[in-house]
Specification:
The longest helix is centred in the N-terminal third of the chain and has 25 residues. The protein has 2 domains: 39 residues; 282 residues, Spore Coat Polysaccharide Biosynthesis Protein SpsA, Chain A, CATH 3.90.550.10. The termini are far apart. It has 10 helices and 10 strands. It is α/β, with parallel strands linked by helices. Strands 1, 2, 3, 4, 5, 6, 7, 8, 9 and 10 form a 10-stranded mixed sheet that branches. The structure holds guanosine-5'-diphosphate and magnesium ion. The site of guanosine-5'-diphosphate has 18 residues, from strand 1, strand 2 and helix 6. This is DEKNAAC100097. Belongs to the ANP1/MMN9/VAN1 family.
């Protein structure tokens, strides 16, 4: 008997046997197609249902309660054995291949690392974005099965004003510091507040022009178990006089407060700032850059009052408690230096590693 005859006979004897399966099929098809539309929609809140991705915390209404017990989130001296997640954040005005290569050499497992970038809305930013995306796609491409993947990569386009000239002399001109540092602070805050997740244990601030660090950077820095910890940023260069490769200090934003610094601050108007590393405003603050001892123990720590952002490890708790990068004068400090002050006001200690070098590109 053919299928057609069977259906005709069933319709005569017991129509429910035919109607029920057809109705069930129609309902199933409706469900499948409508959930497909949802997963293709652009809404950031409409992720695919029942995802195994632990970062997929934006769920469909229906399974809308997601619990995260922040008491169980640790940031310890044994970050690796506790599988603590590290968020590496980089404001990026230009893409340097050496930065990327160094990042890929880091020995901390990529599945425990999230990356976040913020790129300015300028023509330099356009180019940085293109190069960055090409580099990311090579690593994160699901077809490249043998290449370990980062847990998540977020690239943001800045929606605020960017630093206009990226020339070294313009960036570092004393008179442009307040505006420039304030714009940088806003970019850092946007990046931080968009990417910090409920799983993040540590945030590593790493500038896009840091081209060389030890491969165990994350294990080494988290190993100190400090709330805020800065590495010492130097620069390689060719010494024309000695005719040899050499190194010199670069980042002067890691410092200890001085009596003179406090005296100058006490005489400033409310909206005036002090930026470190300029002879125009001599604070005589001890600078970590000058404390490097080539023979010394790389684990030596020193307490700091101001920090730079070139290579800075922060327990996520510090940011979660509210420490950010003030884009306004905060105790006459701004951006990363203001951040150190804010962390201290929240009760955290700020440290640096004078003998632990990382290198800034030589432009
Ligand atoms: N998003 C964003 N990043 C920037 C901007 N200007 C500089 N950067 C990045 O911010 C970091 C610090 O800036 P940089 O100019 O290197 O500071 P310097 O090394 O102290 O002169 C680097 O990673 C830059 O690529 C900007 O306007 N927007
Ligand atoms: Mg730089």
């Amino acid at each position: 008997m053919t299928l057609k005859h069977r259906i005709q006979r069933a319709m005569r004897t017991n129509p429910i046997k035919v109607v029920v399966p057809i109705v069930a099929l129609v309902i199933l098809a409706f469900y499948v197609f409508s959930s497909d539309t949802v997963s293709k929609s652009n809404s950031p809140y409409k992720y695919k249902k029942h995802s195994d991705d632990p970062y997929d915390f934006a769920r469909l209404p229906g399974d809308h309660i997601t619990h995260y017990d922040l008491n169980k989130l640790t940031a310890t001296s044994s970050a690796l054995s506790h599988k603590e997640k590290v968020l590496i954040l980089t404001p990026m005005a230009s893409f340097h291949q050496q930065y990327w290569d160094n990042l890929l050499r880091l020995s901390y497992p990529r599945e425990l690392i999230e990356l976040g970038f913020i790129v300015p809305r300028t023509s330099d930013g356009d180019e940085a974005l293109r190069n960055l995306e090409t580099a990311i796609k090579k690593v994160q491409n699901p077809k490249a099965k043998t290449i370990p993947k980062f847990a998540r990569v977020t690239v943001l386009r800045q929606d605020t004003d960017a630093v206009e000239s990226q020339l070294e002399k313009d960036r570092h001109a004393f008179k442009s510091q307040k505006k420039r540092r304030s714009q940088m602070a806003t970019a850092r805050n946007s990046l931080l507040f968009t990417t910090l997740g409920p799983f993040t244990s540590w945030v590593l601030w790493l500038d896009a022009d840091v081209v060389e660090t030890p491969v165990n950077l994350i294990q080494d820095m988290t190993g100190h178990n400090k709330a805020v910890l800065a590495a010492n940023c130097w620069q390689r260069f060719y010494d024309e006089e000695k005719k040899e490769d050499s190194i010199r200090p670069y980042d002067y934003n890691n410092w200890v407060e001085s009596d003179e610094g406090l005296r100058i601050a006490s005489q400033l108007d409310d909206d005036e700032i002090i930026v470190e590393g300029y002879s125009d405003l001599a604070t005589y603050r001890p600078l970590m850059a000058h404390f490097y001892d080539a023979e010394g123990d790389p684990n030596v720590e020193m307490q700091l009052d101001g920090v730079g952002g070139t290579c800075l490890m922060v327990k996520s708790q510090v940011h979660r408690d509210g420490a950010m990068f003030p884009n306004f004068p905060f105790y006459h400090l701004i951006e990363t230096e203001g951040f150190a002050k804010m962390a201290k006001r929240l009760g955290y200690d700020v440290f640096g590693l004078p003998n632990y070098l990382i290198f800034h590109i030589n432009e």
